[in-house]
Specification:
Order of helices and strands: EHEEEEHEEEH
Number of helices: 3
Structural class: alpha+beta
Strand content: 35-45%
Largest sheet: 8 strands, antiparallel
Helix content: 10-25%
Number of strands: 8
Oligomer: single chain
């Protein structure tokens, strides 16, 4: 059963985001009302009230965010961390200073609910790795851009 947590990111979720290995599922809706989900790996907390993400400028999830503004991000991670974050998306930088095809979006928290279950627990989140050294270099640079923006915005 979902439980309202508040309007600030919980410390355990902030810790997960700062480890830079989490995956969130970003949920958006198209102008026609069709749901769309997007896995997001490049994200970083801006304090306890926002999450910064990098997303490809041509991705359907990005276009839906620009149009709809409201999004939901689902996080499931080791240690029975399970949250859904309702937020309002706003473009911060287009294009990213790191890569011309990537844009930076800030998602301001509107509401957070715990998705922990009394029947099951989350033992592990999604695990991922880079496909090449070049991709790792770009992703690390994108994360560094998000960290800098988290300090300066």
């Amino acid at each position: 059963m979902a439980k309202h947590v508040g309007v600030k990111l919980p410390e355990d979720l902030i810790d997960v985001l700062k480890k830079e290995k989490a995956v969130a599922v970003l949920a958006t809706f198209s102008e026609k009302g069709l749901p769309h989900t997007t896995p997001i790996q490049c994200m970083y907390p801006k304090g306890s009230e926002s999450i910064l993400i990098s997303i490809h400028k041509d991705h359907t999830g990005y276009h839906n965010m620009v149009w709809q503004k409201k999004v939901m991000m689902c996080f499931m991670e080791e240690g029975d961390i399970a949250y859904s974050v309702l937020g309002r998306a706003g473009v911060v930088r287009a294009p990213s200073q790191v890569h011309p095809l990537m844009n930076v979006v800030r998602i301001d928290v509107i509401d957070i609910k715990s998705d922990q279950s009394v029947l099951t627990r989350v033992d592990s989140g999604v695990r991922w790795s880079y496909t090449s050294a070049e991709v790792e270099e770009v992703c690390v640079s994108l994360l560094n851009e998000l960290k800098e923006l988290a300090r300066t915005l």
